[in-house]
Input
Amino acid sequence: MQLVRQKEKLTMKRSGSGVPGPGGGRGSGRHRQACAVLAALLATAVCSGCASGTGGDEHRARPAAGPPGVPGPGARPGQLAGQGGAPAGLRENARFSAAVRAALAKKWGLDRPPLIAPPPPALKPHITTREGFEVNGGDDSLPPVFTTVPTKDRVVFLTMDDGGEKDPELLQMMDELDIPYSAFLSDYLVRDSYGYFMEMQRLGVGLNNHTLNHPYLPGLPYSEQKSEICDQQAIIEKQYGQRPTLFRPPYGNYNGDTLRIAKSCGIKAVPLWNAEAFPDRMEWREADQDLHPGDIILTHFRGRKDWGGSMADLVRAVMKTITDKGYAVARLEDYV
Output
C-alpha cells in the first residue's frame, strides 16, 4: 500500500494549460504518461524505502482528499477536502526513503532534499509584539506584531503575499517536496481564480488576510481600513470556509486603528517578516544577514514579468539558503 501511495504522489501532475478550479482535473493523458515514466524511474528507490522502512513511524496520515472544495470521506460538516487534524501533505515525505527524497529534490532542481521539520509543539508559544513595533496607545489586548516566532526549533516559516501569479507548477512542486508555506491574499488579485487557492488550501496551505486592494493602510480613514480588512475576512470565509486569524498589512505598514480593526473582525496575530526572498537574492532585516530559529520569510506570488524568474526558481533559491544553513521549513499556523 505504501508503494502505491508513493507512486500515486509521484505521478500526480496538474495540467500546465490552465489554472485548476473547483472540481478541476489532474491533467491530460499525456501528462499522466510522462509522469508514469518518472514513477518508473523512481520505482527502485521507492521499493528501497519500503524495504528499509525508514521514516514510517513519524509520518502523519494524510486526510482523504477529493476534488478541490469537495469534502472527503468522513469529513466534518463544512470541512473541505484536505482539512483535518493534519493538513494534506504535511510531512508526507518524512516516510519516504532518503533515495526517494533525493530523487524528488533532483527532479525539481534542488541540490539536496529539504530538511524535515520536527513535529509542531503541543502548546503554541506565547507571542508578543516585537520591541519597536508597538503603536501609540496599544496594549497586550491587540494582536501582536512580530517578525520571528519564539522557538528553539531550527525551523523557519515561508510566507507568500498578494496572489498575482497562479502558477500550477508551484502547487505541484511544493506538494511533492512537502514544503509548507502560508499565503496572505489580496482579493483584487485572486478573485479571478479562487479555485487555484482552493486547491492550495486542499494541499494544507493556510489562506490568510492581506486586505482587499493592498493599500497603504495608515493613510486611510478608519472606515476604509475596516472595509479593507474585515471585508476580506468575510470573502475568505465565504470562499474557503475558514475565517483567518492571521493578518499581514500591505508593505508591513499599520497604525493603532489597523490593529484595533483587525482584532474586531477576528485577527489574533500580525506576522511580518525577518527576511525577504527573491529568485536571485535574500534581503535581511537583521544586521547579521542571517537566519534565526523561528524567522518568518516573506516572498510573493510573482513570475518572470515581475522579477526575472518563475515561482519554481524562487523556491529553489530560497530552499538552498534555508537548507544550507541547517533549517527546515515549518508551518506557521502550527506555531501561531
